[in-house]
Amino acid sequence: MAKQDNEKNNDLPFWLKQSTNEAFNLNLAFTTGRDVKDIPMADSELFYADIYTNLAHAQMLFAQKIITKDEHNDLKVGLIESRKAFAAGTFKLNPKLEDVHMNIEQRLTKDLKIKAAEKLHTARSRNDQVATDMKIYLRQRLTDVTQSSINLTSLMIKLADREKDVIMPGFTHYQPAMYTSFGHLVGAWIEVELRNITRMINSLHLFNQCPLGAGAGYGTSWPIDPDLTAKLLGFTSSANNTLDAVSSRGEMEAQFSFDLAIASSHWSRIAQDLILYSHPYFSLINVSSEYVTGSSIMPQKINLDFAEIIRAKTALSHGNLQSILSIIKGLPSGYNRDLQQTKYIILDLFRELNDIPIILKNVLADLSVNRENCLARCKDSGMAAIEVTNFLSYKYNLGFRKSYLIVSQAIALNSDHSLNLKSLRQILKKQDLPISISDSEWEKAIDPKESLSRQKTLGSPNPKMLKLALENSNTKLDHLSKKLFSFKENYQSNLANLLK
Description:
By secondary structure, this protein is mainly α. The protein has helices at residues 3-8, 22-32, 47-63, 69-88, 100-111, 126-162, 182-206, 226-232, 242-247, 249-278, 305-328, 340-353, 356-365, 371-376, 385-396, 400-412, 421-430, 439-446, 448-453, 463-498; strands at 167-172, 175-181, 209-210, 237-238, 285-286, 368-369. The chain has a two-stranded antiparallel sheet. The model is unreliable at 1-7 (pLDDT under 50).
């Protein structure tokens, strides 16, 4: 940290230090949330999308000879100027004008005195206009989250490969279960991220039809070209049915909400793993001080607030999905004002969840693993019970259930539920089984490293198997990354062309 930053931090708790570190400041903003931050008007977030929609519609009207070249040029200049004014803060939305659409129209007609602006709403309704705006805006937001998830997954693959030899306890029911590795744990996170990314990209393609041209839901008698506006805005095609184009507006919001609800459930699990494994009673990993907060009264506290916020925001995502589904469940065909409420829900959802994969990437990039502690926690021989059971089965041709009962009885002899060779020999003798296990065989059976090396399953904690699995994951990620890039490049280049 720079010297001037240190000087500013003298009177502040460590988690409120002023820093030029972008990751630290993002984490601080993430954990404080809306406590001390305003949120923008909903329609101000749709402003740029509405500019693109207007530009494409105006160009289509000119192409269809509904407006003249001069009228089209005037509209284009006015729309681009309005875009610049909004970005500069000199054009603000007036609540008395109801929405972003009327604000832009009034600026063109009243402020910029563009006569052709009276023709801009020809052959369209606010129904198809806002549906198109929402698709443009949400397409970009989901693309951003998907890209952040790809970046997170790429880092995870590197982390898993780096830590594939770090042996640690694996848990079921919060109880020590079997030996695993930290790389294997991260490998599990990778798989869910790959599904998250796949799901999001599929949704982007599923809803890549342009509603503009549907009007109020029943088309128009004007000789428009919906395929042209669809192409100009970077959509695959125009809508195949005008009524569906308007009626199905909430469906896309619900689908994207579902994608985020599933993804955030996975992010919440990662957050909980980080909380658990960094707990001082476990001390398997260390989270950088850049991402922890403290207590206003207890100086020693180090809290993973970002992880707790992720868990809470996950609950929010589940509730928002249910809200959207409830809004759209009983609507008749055609536009209904109920759908306006889905806008606020989905905008809030992206606002709350957008930074989660970025936060997790930053945390994992600076994460350190306590390798000695991880191995020390594996000294509990109870975690070797399954390996000893398997050893008895394949070495002495005992049925698995028979071996299981022998080992469980040996464990029952010890008050701490541990497993040792002495108690195992007692049970073998008691059952009059002609089995003699040497000290060296025993040590090999319970050795964590040996245990992992015996795993035969692809994607298991065996470092060799995990290495192959990570190579497969990297191939999948590369394919998904190229697929997203192609999708994004297409619509972004089309939108950029509208401004030229």
